[in-house]
UniProtKB/TrEMBL annotation:
It holds the Pfam family DnaJ. InterPro entries: DnaJ-related_N, DnaJ_domain, Hsp70_co-chaperone_J-domain, J_dom_sf. The keyword DNA repair does not apply. Coiled coil: none annotated. This is DnaJ domain-containing protein. Keywords: Chaperone.
């Protein structure tokens, strides 16, 4: 069941009176200037605020199709665009957002999310973010591009490990760096388990 979102009208008014794409932050700032949303701080309060805005945006996205408008939703570029029923690109974008749309249209995700849930979400985000940094650093150690696949990683590791192995006169510290980089990539690469 989709409940009517109290900030939906204000967001629609802002979108219809703005030519440039808006960021999620700009929409929230506008809602705060109208005193339509709480100024509370803390992770749970910010989660709830973000949820309300995203819920309103996804409700509007569905409703605006009847007006031949498509609401393009991205955290950095939210804008209204003309919609043509035959526009395959627009339909593909809408279908790709389906799981996100379903999440934000389900009020239970707002009411049932606790402070601990938000902390877990944030921790998961930061772990993924940091693991991405570690992956890039590891690829650099193995002299590989960012789009290297698991086969390339294995080949480069074998080549560099053989070249820098202490038993073959290589530098022990460089060999350790190569081994650590390989282990990081082994843990982060999803195809690793299927290929090793």
């Amino acid at each position: 069941m989709i409940l009517n979102n109290p900030i939906k009208v204000a967001i629609l008014d802002l979108l219809k009176n703005t030519q440039l794409p808006l960021s999620l932050y700009q929409i929230i700032t506008h809602l705060r200037s109208l005193s339509l949303v709480d100024e509370s701080q803390g992770n749970l309060a910010l989660f709830r605020l973000n949820f309300l805005v995203m819920n309103a945006l996804f409700q509007l996205q569905q409703e605006l199709i009847s007006e031949q408008l498509y609401l393009n939703i991205s955290s950095l570029a939210i804008r209204l665009e003309p919609f043509h029923k035959t526009d395959q690109t627009t339909l593909a974008i809408m279908n790709s957002d389906e799981s996100l749309r379903q999440y934000y249209l389900d009020w239970n995700n707002l009411t049932n999310t606790t402070e601990q849930d938000v902390e877990a979400l944030l921790n998961c985000f930061w772990q993924r973010f940091l693991s991405t940094d570690k992956r890039i650093d590891a690829l650099l150690v193995l002299e590989l591009p960012a789009d290297a696949d698991w086969f390339m990683i294995q080949q480069s590791y074998r080549r560099l490990a053989a070249q820098h192995h202490p038993d073959k006169g290589g530098c022990p510290q460089r060999f350790i760096e190569i081994r650590e980089a390989y282990e990081i990539l082994q843990k982060s690469d999803k195809s690793c388990s299927a290929n090793s």
